[in-house]
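Q: Structure for this?
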Amino acid sequence: MITLSHFMVVSALLFVFGMFAVLTRRNAIAILMGIELILNSANLNFVAFSRYVVGGVAGQMIAVFVIVLAAAEAAVALAIILDIYQKLGTISPDETRELKG
Amino acid sequence: MTPEEIHDHLLDRFGGDVVTGLVQSDESDPKSPVIYDPAQSMIGASAIADVAMFCRDDDALRLDALMCLSALDRGAHLSVVYNLHSMAHGHVAALRVDVPRTAAVVPSVERVWTTASWHEREAHDLMGIAFSGHSDLRPLILPEGWEGYPLRKDYEAQEYYRGMKVPF
Amino acid sequence: MTHPIEAFAARLRTTLAQTTETLELGGRWPEAIPLEGLIAIMLVLLAAVSVALIAVVPIVLVLMERKISAYFQDRLGPTRVGPWGVLVTLADGIKLLFKEDLIPPQADKMLFRLAPYVVFGSSFAVVAVLPPFRSTVIGNLQLGLFIYLAVSSLVVLGIIMAGWSSNSKYSLFGALRGAAQMVSYEIPLGLAALMIVMTAGTLNMQHLVMDQVGGIHRWYMFRNPFLFIGAGIYFISSIAEVNRTPFDLPEAESEIVAGFHTEYSGLRFAYFFLAEYANVFVVSGICVALFMGGWSSPIPGFQALPGIVWFVGKVLVLVFVMMWIRWTVPRVRVDQLMAVCWKYLLPISFVNIVGTGVVVLLEREGWGAELPIGIGHMMWIAVPVVLLVLGLLAFSGTAPVRPRPTTVGR
Amino acid sequence: MAEPATRALRTDTMVLSMGPQHPSTHGVLRLELMTDGEVVQDAIPHIGYLHRNFEKYAENLTYPQIIPYTDRMDYIAAMNNELGFVLTVEKLLGRGPRPVEVPEKAEYIRVIVCELNRIASHLLAFGTYGLDIGAFTPFLYAFRDRETILELFEELSGARLLYNYIRVGGVARDFPPEFHHRLRRFLDYFAPQVDVYDTLLSNNKIFLERTTGIGVLGVDDCIQNGWTGPNIRGAGLAWDLRKEEPYSIYDRFDFAIPVGKNGDCWDRYMVRMNEMRESVKIARQALDQMEERGLLEDENFTANVRGTLRPPAGEIYMRTETPRGDLGYYIHSDGSDRPARVKVRSPCFTALSALRDMSRGLLIADVVAIIGSIDIVMGEIDR
Amino acid sequence: MSLVLFYGFVGLALTSALIVVTTRNIVHAAFALMVTLFSVAAFYVFLDADFLAVIQLLVYVGGILVLVLFGVMMTSGSLLVKLRAPVRQLAPAAAIGVVLLGLLLHVSIGESPWDQFVLVENPDGSAAAAIQGSASERPSLASLATASVRPRLSIAYASTRAQGEGPADRLLEQEVATALIGAGIQRMYVVQSRPDTLNPTRHVVLVEKRVTSLVDDHAEADISDEELASVREAVAGRPVDGFAPAEVSRPEMLLVTGADEKARVALIGDLGLREVTDVRTVVGLGDSVMLGEFLLPFEVVGALLLVALIGAAVVSRKELEA
């Protein structure tokens, strides 16, 4: 029987993987992927809770908003990454230290 | 204007030392006449660029179309013949430059007629005449690193080209 | 908690009942058949239908394309294999089967192998949504149309995967072009489908078709002028979605050889080939279901033949038009392709959506109630007026006539 | 071309090499494209893949032996190549002791044959240009009609593409019986066909979109770049050697020269389409004049020159109008039976030389359209 | 059978997530992300949120991932840059990860508080009462039905056309009846709506002669003509209780009359359970809900998307004049 805790375990793992990617990856786009993973795990939890506990469609609605925001965020992030790549030729977060004092 | 009149026009413009002579057909001996259909005005090697610019820009001549640029191997020396045509007046003329076989250098007329750039590169590839002032004299028809100039009478094909046997 | 199974079994019973009802066997299924038996029957049915579609459809379409293109070009087309060349696609298939599956040297082996399956899979997944029969056997999905849009956006990923992994400039070019084209043409496609959802109020394909039963005047295409233009936009963007001329830039032979499947050969190429023709069938199937009344017959009151015959007939008409366009019209340039989508199709579809919204609102307010025919149909009267006005506008200023070369006598 | 210093940011220009085996380069041309995304920054043509050095052959062969080699240069309009060479030699002989008298029937046969070859060449140009732009069907129609012409040539000269038919002093073989009936039937069939092709491709909205305004070259740029033939007529200059310097008996025919307006791909294409109509007119007039003068029954179709051909020493340059432009032969003879030097001025050679400047800043699809519109044949460029 | 499928997708999601985090080749990471997103969509289907699953497929996999892939292609020049951080950075990150994971797992597996009660609403919509439900078992309908308050119920799918008499149907019928009784509803009419052939915008509504009385154990009785007329009038052509006629065109529909005899229309989706909020049932997420309570947030998010779109275009515009 698939219970709520099944989904919570899965989303926890996804969250940790995403965070690990964000912390360790040396490529801006890989970090972006990490963020996507984190957002997805959050979504999963929202929907799981709305299904098992709260009932109603509020949970799913929040998930839709998160997806939409992720789209907007990805678009702007990629635009910035491309611009950095144009300017500096590299998108690894360590080497882009232009703003450093 | 006939080629001869054009020759005279050039003569009084540039003088004898630049326009060195007119090569005309002479049918004195009916058995073996020598025919030069467009009579050729001999031009000194170094001055060809200015003469060409004059031929194109002078109102009387206005030879704005370079019909054909041919490189010939006349044994003792190499020569480049420019066949010109005027779209406006409709007349035809020919200039000729002779250069010694060893130091075959002719100023480039690329700036006068754009089409000359490929013709000169082809002449350089096949006849070995270097055109000074040409924008990029890379080999056009022959592959890179091909030794010898095929159209010269004394041309010997090289034995190997990059490991491939040449004379089959 | 076994609720999905219960729901599944319940729907299974209803659909089986419907099928037996249509086959006049009296819709009562004995309770004796256990749950597992029902499920087994259902899976067998599903498999039979999908295999039939997967196997038969591309073969017929490939043969149809070669024969029709031949007659357009004043030649005979394949005639050697089988009577009138009917078995030529089988021969092709066998040939591709035995051809060597090359993998280019520094190619990304794993992705290279995976790409054809992604493209092939997502093209065929959409078959589940098609409503070809009167009583849906495959799946009475509440979100049929929406699932179609989602799954058809997966093909883009397969194309990028194929282009990237074959490690050659040409295929990368083709893949990026294809991806850009399909992503941007999804929007007009989606908007056109949205118009139908607005008028019908449901995403379930079977309900859409049932709303169009009863003759050609019931078809959404002719419901109101906005939907008619919507059908046009849908058809154009579906041609772009399937990468066929005049939008076949991803495989523009004259520019980038064969685009993203340049490096593929043998069976993998067969997958791409089948996927393309399956896509053509699926896209025109959806167009028929949405705009041209699915399995209902165009003649009011005459539904003698079973639904599938009407459906496949209409699909073949649409496919014929696609092939007709392919063999007459040249190819569009990349920037013109994007211009058509962003500067022409999108603004028109926005206007259409507003128009359809207005019509739906008026109908809901009950405006059309007392009129003899629906308000949408009444709108068709406005069409000639609009065309007249546009005509006057166009020819009032002297449109720049194409300067024909003058033949100068000498 | 050095990277412009002003561009601070590193653009990822990708070098894409198109050819030598490529469906739209009309033969073995390699185009080195520096592209930034789809936009072409520089297109450097590399030629020489089909170089057999015709000029070296010519120096070691006698004049009649050279004729088959002239076919191999522009293998799509071989008759016109042969005519060019043969007329130049006859002109040189004409100035010498033993001029050659070409019989009138041979002159007419030569004109008919060259105009038919012009139609066949333009048909090929029309068909392949449709393919370059993406329309597949016109190619089939063009080649179906071209087939009839090739069959006529096969009947006449034994070969479909490389004929070796025109000889110094006349032609190799006379018209076979009933040939002129088949020829007339083809001309009557073909005249309305060109209008069919117009409806098929020329006025198609997408074709117009793809070709108008692309690859524009003004008249004086054309002259500078040495463009001739349909390419310069497309730019608006009514320059046709058959009218400017009438050779053989072209002055007996009345035909028009189609001229374009703004020198873009569409105009060059349209000039070729109208030229086909004019060639049909010329061929018909030639046939009528042959019948009026009773030449069909006349036997002598060649002056069959005795002994070895020894034109007088000297240098001569003459040019004729081939489907691709002015084909010039520069012959330097030293009086022997072998020419000392034969230089061929090829129209496609100069047409391709302008490609690099024209294609900067355009898209790849436009470069393909331009190559198709200038109608080049690599055999003639590489020689 | 669905459990096996579920664990399959869990395995798929976790392995591909691992690939996204650890692979050296950025493109492999992108396509592994595709697999992860795909399996998350599958989880949504398991959670009955199929509308959300399709949105995820369309927006996430079809949109954002293609965007990321384009980003990867554009910056592929930097593909070979080392993706692995030096060990100096790996250790602390791994440590944080493990600690966080332990915390989350404890919360999700151990005896966590919210298994204890089911949130229900009082008739006046005020405070939620707690009902001791069995820990992991989803609260069964029966236990809810007896609650005195108006519960948020799930109405099992009841096919009104097939009249199936199989054991599963009987059970479903039973659950529906108990749930409706709990909501104070006595009689269940079966309404069939077919598009009117003459006038396309109107719908002829056939109301079955038989009615199922919920109270005395599903006795089927014919109803009098005037009651039939009243029900037909309640439904045909006029919006009933907030549903426009278009809604009425659905073939499977269940009309229930409340205790106060006011006819209410309940639309039953055919894919398993649907939440019923005070009987004005809502079919999944796709319909009026989005435009109902969540209209304003949707407008705001739409505006935000537009701003992001324009911003991205402006930022990534390559300086042509350079």
